[in-house]
Amino acid sequence: MKQENSTVLEHRLFHGDYRLLKLAAPAIGPLVLPGQFVHLKIPRFEHAVLRRPFSIFKADAESVSILYKAIGRGTAALATVVAGEPVNLLGPLGNGFPNIGSGKTPVLVAGGYGNAALYLQAAKLPVKGVAFFGGRTAADILCVDEFKALGWDVRIATDDGSLGQKGFVTAALDAWVEEQGAGSGGQGVELFACGPNAMLKAVGDRAIQHGLTAWLSMDRNMACGVGACLTCVIKRKTADGWEWARCCKDGPVFEAREILWEE
Asked: What pTM, to 2 d.p., does this model score?
């Protein structure tokens, strides 16, 4: 983890209301692993004590990029920054996605802009598989061309049917799993997912049902980002029951069988 005084290299609309922010980050960029995040101190939002966490979309030796949508005061302020403006970064933070098991086919499941947190994993996995993208409407389906360019088979589902299959992304996943016979003995498939908690639970439940491994990037409010404040804890199963685990430091990625979901 490093703190870096960065500069905005690029800031533009990406798709619909979603924006791409690219930041110079020669100290942080080379350290990034798939599924990690950065904490930004947002310019012109100085009255806010806390930074804001963002999943890392892309990273290289010189920069990091994030995708976001202005949905609150913090992201609304972030939307006003311009190229050349300084932004302070803390990162990379968290434990990201592991590599895939030997002989397994990777399946990615993303809800909304969960695609952003999965892109680096899609780029770095040694084999390509199927990526399921879900959203409310076509405007919420991001990065299709980017994932296809990496060699992924992209399947789309939208709640309103405006793009791809109509319905939840888990329904599209169910149909594919049944078609492949992927649940037989838990062989052949490994899942990586990022999105709303309800979707993550649904993916995790299906993985456990079919004997599959599923890595879930948990969605919790992260105040400090470094494991000190305990606002992002979840219940993680242990041999004796359960313990609190911090999404920002122990996660955000957990295997589905570790998570004890609140009913």
From this structure: 0.93
